[in-house]
User: Which sequence fits this backbone?
């Protein structure tokens, strides 16, 4: 028994209580450990860490290859496959993460179908191996896949919770050897097993991920392989031109040109958004200042007296309402509309910021809206609209006017947009 394993076992015993199986292993008594597993397999499933790892996880991590093989051989396959951590990962996921190739072979011998199992992130052991840079483990798993009877080819195109396949991960982590092997697998009809143009949840293909992460010489080899595989970007509708006969540097130059074009487009979009934001900030500020200075045109003493007006009288003669009421309604539409545009643009630009910074625009906008509402209530002429037995105050009437105008404007814009689309299609 190695000193590393002895220390690991003693540490787990001190933290998670006494386990006869670990005691036997700490004394290098493999025969007793095998007998304990045979008689009481539950000993191998006891939790020994906050991550939900079991005794068998610890054995797989620190024990030598022959010991692991002997102990795994004593556990029933169904029970062995059922051992999972808190992220629902199997022992196969664990071994792939830790780079334990001998353990992988032993586990695959006992429960080969567990290679299809997913953890909470919808990852197969293949995903986990590449995510952790365990290329040797990945090839062990792929070799085992080819010996199984189910459709192993489909498993190579399985997507995780982000929509990434193993090909996405290999490209993103620039694992040239893995990319080369994956592209070499062919179906009986000659098509590639790996879908090189699979799109993840962000709308990106493997080529998109490569284009975002060019930095070293390995990129030339990957670029050449992607072009030979006729890989496309996520927004490409047409089949990409063949790069046959081009050297890797030529392919790299074409990709760099594509990146430059995308960056220019992104910069233009950002400039347009910033310009739009500046215009509406100016409009919101002008509306806010206009309300605060409204008393210079319509002195407060001229509209503090409360009036009672019936709805039918307003319909017959809208000029019964004071002019300042209509001014405040129009000003409110300008202010609230501008603030809506500002919030939408700011939130989209701040989507990658921390929660604190994302909450800051909402806090500032909320303070502006409250101050504007209080000022508008103070400036609003006092009158009551009589609706049956009820009397509606002027401030609430102004809010209803604003809501109607806002809904009408949005409806008109949507209808106009639909008409424009129909005209463009014809």
Assistant:
């Amino acid at each position: 028994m190695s000193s590393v394993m002895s220390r690991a076992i003693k540490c787990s015993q001190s933290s998670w209580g006494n386990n006869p199986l670990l005691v036997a292993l700490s004394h290098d008594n493999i025969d007793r450990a095998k007998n304990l597993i045979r008689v009481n397999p539950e000993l191998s499933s006891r939790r020994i860490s906050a991550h939900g790892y079991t005794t068998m996880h610890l054995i797989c991590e620190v024990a030598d290859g022959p010991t692991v093989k002997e102990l795994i051989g004593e556990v029933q396959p169904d029970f062995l496959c059922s051992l999972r951590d808190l992220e629902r990962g199997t022992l196969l996921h664990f071994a792939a993460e830790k780079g334990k190739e001998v353990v992988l072979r032993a586990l695959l011998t006992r429960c080969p179908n567990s290679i299809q199992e997913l953890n909470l992130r919808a990852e197969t052991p293949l995903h986990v191996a590449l995510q952790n840079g365990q290329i040797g483990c990945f090839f062990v798993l792929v070799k085992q896949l080819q010996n199984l009877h189910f459709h192993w080819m489909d498993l190579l195109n399985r997507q995780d919770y982000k929509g990434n396949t193993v090909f996405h991960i290999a490209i993103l982590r620039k694992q040239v050897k893995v990319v080369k092997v994956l592209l070499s697998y062919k179906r009986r009809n000659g098509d590639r097993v790996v879908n090189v143009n699979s799109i993840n949840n962000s709308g990106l293909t493997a080529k998109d991920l490569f284009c975002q992460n060019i930095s070293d010489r390995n990129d030339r080899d990957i670029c050449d392989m992607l072009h030979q595989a006729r890989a496309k970007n996520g927004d490409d509708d047409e089949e990409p031109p063949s790069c046959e006969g081009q050297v890797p540097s030529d392919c790299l130059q074409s990709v760099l040109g594509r990146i430059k074009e995308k960056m220019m487009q992104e910069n233009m979009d950002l400039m347009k958004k910033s310009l739009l934001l500046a215009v509406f900030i100016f409009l919101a500020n002008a509306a806010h200042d206009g309300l605060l200075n409204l008393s210079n045109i319509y002195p407060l003493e001229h509209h503090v007296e409360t009036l009672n007006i019936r709805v039918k009288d307003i319909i017959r003669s809208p000029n019964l309402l004071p002019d300042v009421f209509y001014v405040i309604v129009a000003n409110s539409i300008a202010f609230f509309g501008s603030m809506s545009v500002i919030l939408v643009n700011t939130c989209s630009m701040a989507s990658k910021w921390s929660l604190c910074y994302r909450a800051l625009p909402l806090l500032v906008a909320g303070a502006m809206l409250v101050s504007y509402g209080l000022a508008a209530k103070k400036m609003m002429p006092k009158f009551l609209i009589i609706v049956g037995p009820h009397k509606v105050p002027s401030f609430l009437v102004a809010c209803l006017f604003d809501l109607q105008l806002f809904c009408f404007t949005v409806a008109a814009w949507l209808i106009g947009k639909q008409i424009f689309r129909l005209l463009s299609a014809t």
Observations:
- Strands lie at 307-310, 383-387, 390-393.
- Residues 248-292 form the longest helix (45 residues).
- Residues 1-5, 12-16, 239-248 have pLDDT under 50 and may be disordered.
- The two ends are 79 Å apart (CA to CA).
